[in-house]
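Lecture 7, part 2: worked example. A protein chain together with glutamic acid.
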Amino acid sequence: MLADLLFPEIKESIEDITKKYPKRPNWQTITRMWPSPTWFVHIWNVYSAMLDDIFGHKDNWINFLRIEDTDQKREVEWAKNKIVDIMKKFWLIFDEGPIWANYTDLWDYGPYIQSQREYIYKVFAKHLLSEWKAYPCFMTEEELAEIREHQTIWRQVSGVYGSFSKWRNATEEEIKNELETKKEFVVRFKSPWKIGDRVVVNDMIKWDVETNDNFLDIVILKKTGIPTYHFAHLVDDYLMWTTHVFRSDEWFASLPLHLQLFKAFNYTPPRYIHYAPLIKLDNWNKRKLSKRKDLEADVEYYFKLWYPIIAIIDYLANIINAWYEDWRKENTKKSFKDYDFKIEKMSQAWALVDMEKLDFVSKEYIANLWIEELFNEFTNWANKYDNELMKLININIDYTKQALNIERELEKPPKRFCKMSDIPSQLTFFFDEIYKNLDINFQELIPNIKKEHISKFLANYKEYYNLNQSKEEWFSQLKEIAVNSSFAINNKEFIEWTHIWKIWDAAMILRVVLCWQRNTPDLYETMQTMWKQRVDTRINKFI
Ligand code: GLU
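Predicted complex, written out as structure tokens:
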């Protein structure tokens, strides 16, 4: 038989293989994430894993991880482990997959790494060959190029189909002869459809869509015996009993082909959900988030800046269902998994990545953290990225917490941080150890007031300020001292000395003298935190 001639090493039948993958209970929804491992984990991977997790885990159903590592060129060995680790960080849980110790398979529907399944794909390809629903194709690159050229010249649809396929209707004899001289072949699906055929396909976001049916004899097994995505999808999702395939909209065009493949085996296809890819606005044009152009495509980028993981999740959840945001406002401490996501409410075209939105969501999240949570999150960052600061924090734990807590207990606290990497610039000045080593150019920071006038004001202020005062008392005293010190403003060249009183200037002087920068947290609370000795030392240093 022809199939035996092509794959003599394959002895088992598809029934033999199917027996090893026992039917799962009817009532279970089975989803899977099926990433291709590369050196780079795309934020889109997290987004799609969230979808699988959210919908797969409704009512405790199953979501498994399968790795598409057949595109050997792109594959990076450690990349699959990295995917597992990163998904864990996002609390995206898989019930099955290469997730066990040392990234070995957990559970019985594996192997979950595609490169370990080559034998199985061959069994299925051999079956199609035996039914003449597929055929070996020996065409060379040159022959394929010739076809392409002909099709371009004659404005025909390009690809291998119908009479363009030299091997589609070859006899067993012809194939045997070819095999004797040439061993290399690909296996092509023999599409029973022709150009112009239409089909109605169903998708859970788009509903019924009428579209062109597939008429191409696409490759299902490459020369190397490795399956293409299309064929691996059929085999694996059939054997592993996937019921719902969530995948990017780019695959929608292949749906007619996939349905044909399922039909060729008489299998029921899964339900499909094609979601819009993540896009961004670039000069008001929409385009796909690109690995090459966009820093924010890489998950590590968010890690380095240290957006809290939950903030990233919230932000992606907002993209999945726009109503999530309102729910989140009411349920600040709940898990995103408690929200009732709806597939039908996903946008068909719109999945916009917008860093300003992320900043907004993240600020909101950080503002809602308890101080202990904020402290932990921040020290996780500092432990990794700022040893010097971390050492200081370790010997000043309460002081650090107090500094981090500034303005957070106000009735309407301003939202100050988008991510943990924003914090050091608002924290380091609390530590004398860092202060000592800094060479600060005060004049640059307060260019419009003369040094001697600053000193005069500070000397006065130091005499009278009192940290036991309430904020109101403290503020009116600051005003008073500022007036009495009558410091000068020479921001216009000809006005050397005026007595224009500005409380704003007085406060700015204090900010710069105490924190060596103009942008600081609430001054009263900052002084309360630093307390008298520090405040005095810093004022004295300036004077
Ligand atoms: N590896 C494919 C991709 O990343 C998987 C698509 C699917 O889930 O079917 O696009």
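The radius of gyration is 33 Å. The pocket of glutamic acid is lined by residues 34-36, 68, 233, 245, 247-248 (CB under 6 Å). Keep this in mind for problem set question 3.
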